[in-house]
Amino acid sequence: MSITGGNVVGLGSGLYAWLPPKRGWGLANCGLLVSDRDALWIDTPYDTVLAGQFLAESRKLLPGGVDIARVIVTHANGDHFWGAGVLPGAEIIATREAREHIHYDPTPQQQHALVAGSDPATPLGAYLARHFGAFDWSATEQVMPTTYFTGELELTLGDYPVQVTSLPPAHTGGDLIVHLPVQRTVFSGDVIFSSTPGQPGDHPVHWAGPLDNVIDACERVLATGAEVIVPGHGPVLDPAGVREHIGYLAYVRERAHALHAGGVPAPEAARRVIAEGRYPALGLPERLVVTIGSEYRHLDGSVMPGVLQVMAEVAEVARETEAAYTGGPA
Ligand SMILES: [Zn+2]
């Protein structure tokens, strides 16, 4: 089984957003910018099936003789990056910190083996199968950035300026945002996971933090003056939508700090924030285990347990939460 579909939305002046067919882990938005002599992607889908579909859709929009020569990677999580193999020879641009981050994440083939080999009788195995089992990385080779930087990078594509800015640790340790001033648009990567009343999204998941840095990154997006914000996941936003998202982040930060001060351990703090039910329309509330855990590490200097241990806690909280919603046994 694989995931298919996705939707290309024109944003004007050669700019397009590719929105995946549904929400959930690993289904990220991507960008395509086209001039009369060049084209680039901002991020790639998670696996080669989806990336191949995005490529086919992209090529319908390219002038004759033009192909995608560059990919700007907003951060080094695979759901924004591992599809780059469908563009052999493309320049791949990321922050220096993202390039380092790659060595801490599993490779595509390691992740494939992990998901395929997990015991579905355990909460973690069931969770991985359910949320990651439809992707296929069995033949995906790890792609590495070819160009990396810290600070500001200004590119041009045809006549369009492309302003790329690296960020302090926020969603990961190597995030960047892409500002397209002619199109008055920012691709924010995963410093924003959006939701709107008609299109509820998922809770963000922040692996680095602190949340102050995530909020600062959102403020930086607003400071560009862009009118259209394409988040890493979820529907396209206007500045008011980003302000609302900052409100979510400030709420989680405030609750995390109060619960930490009260001596409540991180997974339990996530359970309590979920039980408050402040954002009932958002999916995957168990991701608060990760985000609040990251915030705690900045408060007490503790070290992140392994990703698998964190994901096991995420899976356990998901199991409890779903049982609570359905009234079934926990
Ligand atoms: Zn993502």
Point out poorly predicted stretches. Answer: none
Task: Count up the helices.
Answer: 9
CATH architecture: 4-Layer Sandwich
Q: Please summarize the sheet with the most strands.
A: 7 strands, mixed
Secondary-structure class: alpha/beta
Rg, please? 19 Å
Amount of helix: 25-40%
Shape: globular
Q: What is the CATH C-level name?
A: Alpha Beta
How big a fraction of the residues is strand?
15-25%
Q: Topology as H/E string?
A: EEEEHEEHHHEEEEEHEHHHH
The CATH superfamily turns out to be Ribonuclease Z/Hydroxyacylglutathione hydrolase-like
Provide the spatial order of strands within the biggest beta sheet.
Answer: 1-2-3-4-5-6-7
Count of individual beta strands = 12
Overall pLDDT level: 95
What small molecules does this complex bind? zinc ion
Describe the model.
With 330 residues, the chain is an alpha/beta fold. It has one domain (7-326): Metallo-beta-lactamase, Chain A, CATH 3.60.15.10. The chain is 36% helix and 20% strand. The chain has helices spanning 48-59, 96-101, 108-117, 123-132, 211-223, 239-261, 266-276, 288-300, 307-326; strands spanning 7-12, 15-19, 30-34, 39-42, 68-72, 91-95, 147-149, 152-157, 160-166, 176-180, 185-193, 228-233. The strands form two sheets. A seven-stranded mixed sheet has the order 1-2-3-4-5-6-7. The protein has a five-stranded mixed sheet with strand order 8-9-10-11-12, covered by helices on one side. The mean pLDDT is 95. Zinc ion is lined by residues 28, 77, 79-80, 190, 232-233.
Helices and strands, with pairings:
Elements (H helix, E strand, L loop, with lengths): L6 E6 L2 E5 L10 E5 L4 E4 L5 H12 L8 E5 L18 E5 H6 L6 H10 L5 H10 L14 E3 L2 E6 L2 E7 L9 E5 L4 E9 L17 H13 L4 E6 L5 H23 L4 H11 L11 H13 L6 H20 L4
Helix pairs in contact: 4-9, 5-6, 6-7, 6-8, 7-8, 7-9
Bound molecules: zinc ion.
Zinc ion binds next to strand 12.
